[in-house]
Amino acid sequence: MKKPIILIFASKDGGNTFCKMQYSDGILKAGGIPLIVPMNTDGESLKQLCGTADGFLFAGGVDMDPKIYGEEKINDTVEIDEVRDRLELTALSYIVPSDKPVLGICRGIQSVNVGFGGTLWQDIPSQCEGALVHRQTIPGDQPSHEVTVLPGTRLFGITGKEKIMTNSFHHQAVKTPGKGLRVTARASDGMAEALEYEGDRFVLLVQWHPEITNDSEISKGIFKSFIDSIKTNCK
Asked: What is the DSSP code string of the chain?
């Protein structure tokens, strides 16, 4: 079969849409073709792109606007990009009915969760007393804390382990899972580190950055599982 096309929803910097090459490298190494979605894509073009693509990667970046999940911004640590929010939520309105596979990384777990009706902790340090330091200062290719994976989940099937070490670069996290999503991994402080869709549909959302460590077996497994799910569905 042809290599699957994966839309990547990336970041905005002024008038530029940009994506760290590690995301596209992860897709390429797993056997897919990455396609970055321009930030100024209009709704009709976005609908066509989502209809054409085989899978979707929601990448890292700044915070979701709390107003989307019914809250006011609590402090200045919350950095909002309304253009990106609008683009991703519009894309999700096309993606959800399609049942096509979705992979979310860092901001991606948060934006997809909000798109499914979930909520977020806006700022872990100020809202969650006793929480771990989730924004590490050591290099991204070095793990900073342990994550416990729920047995019997898709992620457990990928990792083969109940305890894994991950990197961590976030100050927000999933508070309540969206409709149809469940928490499948947690940090030792109870913070949600992964979500999956209940049922057979491939929706895998992780709070850490496997693209930075995409030469590790677990990180390669995450990307490979994503691409393989598309190939299986296309048989």
From this structure: -PPPEEEEE-EEETTEEE--HHHHHHHHHHT-EEEEPPTT--HHHHHHHHHH-SEEEE---SBPPGGGGT----STT--B-HHHHHHHHHHHHHHGGGT--EEEETHHHHHHHHHTT-EEES-HHHHSTT----B--S-TTS--EEEEEPTTSHHHHHH--SEEEE--B-S-EEEEPPTTEEEEEEETTS-EEEEEESSSS-EEEESS-TTTTTTSHHHHHHHHHHHHHHHHHT-
